[in-house]
Design a protein that fits this description.
The protein contains 11 helices and 21 strands. It is α+β, with helices and mostly antiparallel strands. It has 2 domains: 196 residues, FAD/NAD(P)-binding domain, CATH 3.50.50; 136 residues, D-Amino Acid Oxidase, subunit A, domain 2 (D-Amino Acid Oxidase, Chain A, domain 2).
Length: 407
């Protein structure tokens, strides 16, 4: 009995989406994967992410249920990796101290009930105080409304990427640092590989990559592939544009990013695990959680210039210390301005673009939530060639304006 040859797949992008897809493809035993990791900052959106796995506010209903599948896929992925992911699946605590915010939460829960959702628990004041939340009871006294969202969680995104890439590499995948990446399309517009410049003398590509000038030699190479996965996050529009493919991102104009920002602060590690949940204080507004490493990550959204908001990051940590005094005085380790991988219409993108066979795209503003589920779907679709109908509204074919019919 003959054995089918392995399908050669090149994955462009090594953030949470690319690394999850690469791992599942290599794990299938039916693919030989090469991950092309851009030199410099290899995964800016992932590294700057808050790391929240969430679904509560996702609209419309199909997108909400898709996000719930992302949460379930994280648990499956962690089982596959023998619980080595820096993952918490205890849920989120959503709390409001003002009547207006409380009504907003209550109205949203009613919508979720109409959608058949039961994965939440409204908490009385006694239940909130009895919960082992790590939060100061005196601060919780002011909370007027609280709900425990059961199907949410958090993951340390940068560490998760390293876990996934190491696991893929142990299964036989190649992880390669490269720059000047360019899609290769034949005369029929079929994607057949990637042109890129790769170097020798680089450090281990599973740590932070070297800069362009730090290797011995650089040489343009061609990575032939039966399929190419474009999971390049913030770089996806530029790579697609060069091949005449329309994959638009919101806030991207002529190569410049101008919108869709958040401020994220990360503390130095704290020696004890205090916070089992992601906490969302609607009236601050502030989100925070503690990773298994002990670091606390906090974020808030903003519009306008990032400069004025960078000064608020220590204040975010100070607020967390007020709510969780066991932390004492938290020390700021790093601040991020998080530019989001936000499709132009706000919804996820997965599948082949129009008129470009063998090219598969995956990106989303909810990439942290959806990455493991999209990895499962992408692996089946790439290897079996059978699309999943329930994802039809999330296909890149919805974007018009592909310019090129020949390379």
């Amino acid at each position: 009995m003959s054995v089918a040859p392995l399908k050669k797949v090149a994955v462009i992008g090594s953030g949470i989406m690319g690394s999850a897809i690469a791992y599942q493809l290599q794990r299938s035993g039916r693919a030989q994967v090469s991950v092309l990791r851009p030199v410099g900052r290899p995964y800016p959106a992932t590294h700057c992410s808050f790391g929240w796995i969430n679904s509560f506010a996702k609209d419309p209903q199909p997108y909400y249920h898709l996000s719930k599948e992302g949460f379930n896929a994280w648990k499956r992925l962690n089982e596959q990796l023998n619980s080595t992911l820096p993952l918490k699946t205890n849920g989120s605590l959503l709390m409001a101290s003002k009547l207006e915010s409380a009504e907003s939460i209550s109205n949203r829960l009613q919508v979720l009930r109409e959608w058949g959702t039961t994965e939440f628990k409204e908490l009385s004041k006694a239940e909130l105080l009895a919960l082992d939340s790590g939060l100061d009871p005196s601060k919780l006294d002011a909370i007027q409304y609280a709900v425990h969202l059961l199907n949410e969680g958090s993951v340390d995104p940068t560490t998760a990427v390293h876990v996934l890439l190491r696991a893929a590499k142990e299964l036989g995948a190649k992880v390669l640092d490269a720059y000047a990446l360019r899609l290769s399309l034949d005369e029929n517009n079929v994607c057949n590989g990637v042109f890129c410049t790769r170097g020798t003398g680089l450090n281990d590509p599973l740590t932070e990559p070297s800069g362009v000038d730090e290797c011995d030699t650089w040489k343009e190479t061609y990575e032939a592939a039966d399929a190419v996965v474009l999971a390049a996050g913030l770089g996806i529009t530029e790579l697609a544009d060069e091949a005449g493919i329309n994959l638009p991102l919101k806030g991207y104009t002529d190569g410049e990013w101008n919108r869709i920002r958040g401020v994220v602060a990360e503390s130095e590690p704290f020696e004890k695990q205090i916070l089992p949940y992601t906490v969302h204080l609607m009236d601050e507004p502030l989100y925070f959680h503690q990773f298994p490493s002990g670091c606390i990550k906090a974020c808030f959204d903003f519009n306008g210039s990032p400069v004025e908001h960078m000064t608020k990051t220590q204040g975010m940590l100070d607020t967390i210390s007020e709510y969780a005094p066991q932390f004492g005085e938290l020390k700021l380790r790093e601040t991020f301005i998080g530019l989001r991988v936000y499709p132009i219409d706000g919804f996820p993108v997965i599948g082949e673009p129009a008129n470009t066979p063998n090219l598969y795209c995956a990106y989303s503003n909810g990439g942290i939530t959806l990455a493991p589920y999209f990895a499962e779907i992408a692996t089946k679709e790439i290897l079996d060639g059978t699309p999943h109908d329930f994802l039809s509204e999330y296909r890149p074919t919805r974007f018009k304006g592909n310019k090129r019919t020949k390379k």
